[in-house]
Amino acid sequence: MKPGAGENPWVERFIYQVRQSAKYRHLDLPEPLLRDVIIRALARYEKPAQAMAAARRVLHQVVAPYLGDPDYTWALQALEASANKGLDAVRQVCLELLRSHASTRERLPFLETFFQRLFEITGTPSTVLDLACGLNPLAWPWMGLPPTTRYLAFDIHRPRVALINAFFQRLGIEGEAFHQDILVQPPQTPAEVAFFFKEIHRFEERQPGCARPFLEAIPARWVMISLPTRSLSQRRDLLSLHQRLMTRILEGLEWEVREIGFENEVVFCVRKT
Ligand SMILES: C[S@@+](CC[C@H](N)C(=O)[O-])C[C@H]1O[C@@H](n2cnc3c(N)ncnc32)[C@H](O)[C@@H]1O
Hints:
Bound molecules: S-adenosylmethionine
Helix content: 40-55%
CATH superfamily of the largest domain: Vaccinia Virus protein VP39
Structural class: alpha/beta
Oligomer: single chain
């Protein structure tokens, strides 16, 4: 996009630099994300150089490369090869892929009961939104959903989105993954259930105070918000910190909230309507 009249040239400079960088080039991050991050930083810092550095720090936290990734070329080939060999072979590849990212790796010990317990509360949804999905849609074989459920997933990371779309297509799942910054452009499709796993605390870091209006904008009856209860290193207990965060975000809203605890993750099941 060309700079509009009066637009700050640092915005275009930031977008250009990110798109050219070895660190982010292959991720094809959505332009609305990059624009939002730099515009907010420019509003906050007097000197453009400080704003550029701050925007780069925010982007690093948003993208979180330290959480891990599979080799996406290998992943696509492995999924393709396994699809001809039946569901067990597909499950093996999915497990390997889920293991390659910290958020899903931590969920593996209780994968099956995790979704069972969530759907016991919500009932079986006909549409699911998986917000900031990461690799979680690859847990579909353990979700126990009927083939008629529509599964709409959203992420900013192009190779992840492409892998999930290939997975849906190859398995004939009624699903689609979208390459979209859901904070700037929240999904519009109504659903019974939205998953928002292990991301709300990071949304609040990116943009303090954003979580509540974001949740209000999500057109789902149930929003299942999860948070880790242990730090990445497993050393710190984060449960009470994250319970306080959720109390603050939901304060004053007349939404029913139920909490379910797992080994290293807590889910706040929020009924909006
Ligand atoms: C901490 S991981 C959690 C993944 C998944 N929800 C899970 O718990 O297994 C965060 C994921 O959210 C994505 N993400 C971060 N900000 C986003 C945004 N504004 N819109 C869409 N996806 C986002 C990242 O690319 C990453 O895949």
